[in-house]
Amino acid sequence: MSLADQSVSPSARPLVKLSNIRKSFGSVEVLKGVDMAVQEGQVVAMIGRSGSGKSTLLRSINGLERIDDGVIEVDGECVDPSQIDLRALRLKVGMVFQQFNLFPHLTAGENVMLALKVVKKQDKAACRAAAEAALSKVGLGHKFDAYPSQLSGGQQQRVAIARSLAMAPKVLLCDEITSALDPELVNEVLSVVRQLAEEGMTLLLVTHEMRFAREVCDSLVFMHGGRIIEHGPPAELFDRPQTPELAQFVGMVEAR
Amino acid sequence: MYNFTLWDILSNLLLAARWTVLLSAIAFVCGGIAGVLVLLARVAPLRPLQTAMKLYIELFQGTPLLMQLFIVFFALPLTGIETSPWTAAAVALTLFTSAYLAEIWRGCVEAVPRGQWEASASLAMSYGEQMRYVVLPQALRIAVPPTVGFSVQVVKGTAVTSIIGFVEVTKAGTMITNATFQPFLVYGLVGLIYFALCYPLSLSAKALERKLNVAR
Ligand SMILES: Nc1ncnc2c1ncn2[C@@H]1O[C@H](COP(=O)(O)OP(=O)(O)O)[C@@H](O)[C@H]1O
Ligand SMILES: [Mg+2]
């Protein structure tokens, strides 16, 4: 249980702080005032039914969705919707997607190197070294020259993780990153995430892997209807849900 | 009366066909370059620019090439710009080609999945960097077959320039017919020349399409 004592001193300033985030698509309000804080080194999982706004919330943290109201603070940098410096924000926030989204015309190594080269302006040797390190970290050092189409889903997702990690983000967002995988490929991706968690990476993940959430996460957030209606340590939420919505969700997921 | 041999007719047509080829090449290359600019403006995240380019494209797609040619040839001189049949033909075909190619390529850019934009955005890439390194390389692959296919339209489009007196293969055909009174033979040969120019292009467009489908 080494993970449990990764708890952060309460005085620490949160790495990610969301205040009163609101977002509508047309006339439908999808996020109805969400507050949340993630401490440095914390691993937080978001759970909730499909359509409860998890992806929208996650995507707003790196500016893929523009919020209508509220404040997002990452690493002390305040970003409100009107004066958002997306480039600065995105250098601090990495994201991994359900559908991998690797660049199909580039090899695994080139996928990892691209942003190092064009965004961080690192020289060739530095890019190559960083990409090799990142790919080795996810166990794919030997696939440097493989194209995404030559890799399994699990391998592609690990390359996607390596691609984000190579940019050295402060926090990594993962949106259901195992949901598009065949069951037998889920674990290779989860174990990479677990390893990142153990190394102290700050992670915010949307997941349906409840066992993983229970074992690896410091904190759990339950979203329902565009709000966070419960949050706390995983064991507490799973074993003593306070709301009927969470009780029902836990029952539903565990029945599967 | 002088008797035209088949070779006389054919050699004159082939000489004129050089201008068809040259005009096609100029229209295709210049139209391609202009088309890239129109495309970039058409998909840029700037509303007014998008609208302007949409209008430009629809203008050229929604009017006959012949009208475009007349406007360039007859209307430009009214504004004080001298135009020879050569320049008028080249300018009109270039504009026409740029509009069509921009629209073809826009489809290719939009066929690149949204996830590619999102992933590259998440890596802090700017719009220009996303376009250059992620989207255009992928769009280019799917753009090759329809682009080569469209070159056939350009070659055939050069025929209308005969109306303003530009002597390409169709105009040469008309002139030779007037001298030989053998329209069937002459225009038959003209048709064969167009076919010989266009058929390899459409064949290669199809082959490229097959090849790219397999590669994916
Ligand atoms: N781009 C969009 N346009 C319109 N509605 C959207 C869009 N994205 C998400 N939604 C809606 O917002 C709600 C929340 O979606 P999402 O954040 O994806 O939920 P979750 O990830 O929890 O399943 C859903 O009702 C969804 O239909
Ligand atoms: Mg989702």
Question: Could you provide a short overview of the structure?
Answer:
The complex is a heterodimer of chains A (256) and B (216). Chain A has helices at residues 54-61, 86-92, 108-118, 124-137, 153-166, 183-198, 210-216, 234-239, 244-255, and strands spanning 16-25, 28-38, 43-48, 69-74, 77-79, 93-96, 171-175, 202-206, 219-224, 227-232.
How would you characterize this protein structure?
Chain B: Keywords: Cell membrane, Membrane, Transmembrane, Transmembrane helix, Transport. The complex is a heterodimer of chains A (256) and B (216). Chain A has a single domain (3-255), classed as Rossmann fold. Chain A has nine helices and ten strands. Chain A has helices spanning 54-61, 86-92, 108-118, 124-137, 153-166, 183-198, 210-216, 234-239, 244-255, and strands at residues 16-25, 28-38, 43-48, 69-74, 77-79, 93-96, 171-175, 202-206, 219-224, 227-232. In chain A, a hairpin with a 2-residue loop joins strand 1 and strand 2. In chain A, helix 3 (108-118) crosses helix 4 (124-137), helix 3 packs parallel to helix 5 (153-166) and helix 5 packs parallel to helix 6. Chain A starts with 15 loop residues before the first strand and ends with a helix. The model of chain A is unreliable at 1-8 (pLDDT under 50). In chain B, helix 1 (6-43) crosses helix 4 (85-111). Chain B has a single domain (6-215), classed as MetI-like fold, CATH 1.10.3720. Chain B has 216 residues and is mostly helical. Chain B is 83% helix and 0% strand. The model of chain B has no long low-confidence stretch (mean pLDDT 93). Chain B has helices spanning 6-43, 47-61, 65-78, 85-111, 114-122, 127-157, 169-180, 183-215. The chains are: A alpha/beta (256), B mainly alpha (216). At the A-B interface, helix 2, strand 6, helix 3 and helix 5 of A face helix 5 and helix 6 of B. The structure holds adenosine-5'-diphosphate (ADP) and magnesium ion. Residues 25, 30, 48, 50-56 of chain A line the site of adenosine-5'-diphosphate.
